[in-house]
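User: Can you help me understand a structure? I only have the sequence.
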Amino acid sequence: MSAEQFDVLIVGAGLSGIGAGYHLQAHCPGKRYAILEGRDSSGGTWDLFRYPGIRSDSDMYTLGYSFQPWTEAKAIADGPAILKYVRDTARQFGIDQHIRYGHRVKRAAWSTTDARWTVEVELGQAKEPVTLTCGFLFMCSGYYSYEQGYTPSFPGIEHFKGRVVHPQDWPSDLDYTGQRVVVIGSGATAVTLVPSMAPKAAHVTMLQRSPTYVISRPAQDKLANALRRHLPGKLAYGITRWKNVLLGMLFFRLSKRRPDRVKALILKGVRHALGPDFDVAKHFTPSYKPWDQRVCLVPDGDLFKAIKTGRASVVTDHIDTFTDKGIKLKSGAEIEADLVVTATGLNLLVLGGMEIVVDGQAVDLSKTLNYKGMMYSGVPNLASAFGYTNASWTLKCDLTCEYVCRLLQHMDQKGLRQCTPRNNDPTLKTEPWIDFTSGYVQRSLQKFPQQGNKAPWKLHQNYALDIVSLRLGSINDGAMEFSNPATGRA
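Assistant: Let's start by predicting it. Here is the structure, written out as tokens:
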């Protein structure tokens, strides 16, 4: 039985994959495509995570699609609202008709002779082998493993008589009403969980080894809501989107140029929220500079309010061991708990863990160079959607989708079937794929490709620069090699 053929295969039906489907339909309407989704439902992250309070840590005017205005009142939206937005978008544009559920991609092999990828898939729980082919493979599978989150090896955890859960695998039957809860961690997930669980729990303790920068921001964008009342929806959305993009870029740039000043401003806000008696120096003053790790956002100061009311508290210490009653700390103190939530991070994964082969040779992605934040040196006709670390995920993904469409259009116009990033610059120096000190990044950095010290191999993490490069820049940049004429052989 011959493999089903497509012009483009998109892997992943989350925020990025649905966006990719839209851009293909809008800019390359003649292309036949399918979206392969390993799970039985769309939405990606926003369907997978079900923990209390799940929400974005970016505003929806930038996390939302460029082509689909966000119309809800809340700018910092909860998970169910984001999931509805993604699914409504897929339904509105007919993208949902292209999704194939239960298709878990395991391997992709490129043939230069055929100018095609052969994609091997496991279908459903029975893992039935299915083979598809495509001319271009677009990976929108995210950056972490959906199988399980990261939990460190905690001494004595087997003695604990309570329950331990990871936010990525939140049980539907978990009732923590009246329970003593300890949330281990201080990142975006932890600062979401604590105020969300505090009203029902007896008490919630956020146990952290070290503090994180936390900023309060209004859950609603007053300007956006006002503009929407007086202007057409798309215009109001576009103005708010650019306002938030520019403010975000300004804050990031100031953090890098004047880190001490930004640090002082952030801590001033925390002191104002928590009052003069709270030990901000110990619990909310990180040892690193702002944006060396991602800054946490709390809508309407909900975390600070939970702490101030006494329903939640922060403990900054190291875990010595779990006991039958809770957690004993290095200081000698013990926190009693009925429930421990390990908000300790994700297991990062490159291209969903898919095996890649090019003309019979297995590709080690850690030995490749990342091209424009989306493609890989020596790997033809494959792109991946990966968002910003210092801004909304979708901003970069939208630009990536546009660029992939430009590549496809260019090859069609020239009668060519293959585009391959090549490093022909002997002076290029390599750097780590991402400049981030967060533990979950550092644990997995060796698996990811390198970046270069100059364009087009340099990741700028800058939306304005990427617009110039990806939307307006030349396709023929000296690093992208076009080959394999449709009428002959390479």
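Now, to help you interpret it: Residues 24 and 405 are 7 Å apart (CA to CA). DSSP finds 13 helices and 25 strands in the chain. Let me know which part you'd like to focus on.
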